[in-house]
Amino acid sequence: MKRYNIKKQFGFIILMMFSTSLFAQNLNFSDFDKDDDGWIEKEEFRTVFTANYWDDWNNVDNSYLDDEDFYTFNYALIDTDDDDLLTEEEWTYGYDYYYGDYLKDGYDSFEAYDVDGDGYIEYTEYYDGLYDTDYYVTWDIDKDTYLSQEELAENVFENWDLNDTGLMSRSEFYNFDGFYKDI
C-alpha cells in the first residue's frame, strides 16, 4: 500500500510540474492584470513577462541578453513557418511591426537583405543587415550593451501599447498574445 501512495504522489508531482509549464505558455489577460482593473499596467506586464518569457529570449542562459540573443529570438519570432528562412511575407511582417523604423530608406526592401538572391533571407543575412542599425541599441535603455529583463519587458510592452497610454488594453493584449502564442 505504501508503494502505491509513493507512486501516486510522484505521478501527481510530475503532473503538477507539467501543468505549470503548460500554464506558463498559455497565460491570459487576467494573469497579467494582477489588480483586476481591466488594464495591464507596465509594472504588471514586466513582472509576468520576465517570469515567463525571459528564458525564451535568453539563449545563453545568463542574467542579460546580448545582441546575438536579441537577433536570434527576433528572427525565430518572425519565422512563422519555422523553416529557418524568412519569406518576403515574414520579412514584411517583421518590418511592419518591429524593425522597419530602423532601416535606412532605399535599403529597406526584402531584396536588399536577400543578398544571395535565393528568395529567402537566411539568419546571417538578417543579422548582417540589422546589426549596424539602431534596432538593438534603442532597446538597451541604460546603454550598457546588454538588455536586462526589465529593459526587454519594457520594450515589448511599449511595442504592444499601440496607443502609447502606458496601459495595455484587452485588445492590445490580444494582439500581443496572438503574436507570442508560440513562445
UniProtKB/TrEMBL annotation:
Keyword RNA-binding: no
Domain EF-hand residue range list: 29-55, 101-136, 148-183
KW Oxidoreductase (keyword) present: no
Alphabetic keyword roster: Signal
Signal peptide bounds: 1-24
InterPro entries per record: EF-hand-dom_pair, EF_Hand_1_Ca_BS, EF_hand_dom
Family annotation (Pfam families): EF-hand_5, EF-hand_7
Name of the protein: EF-hand domain-containing protein
Organism: Cyclobacterium jeungdonense
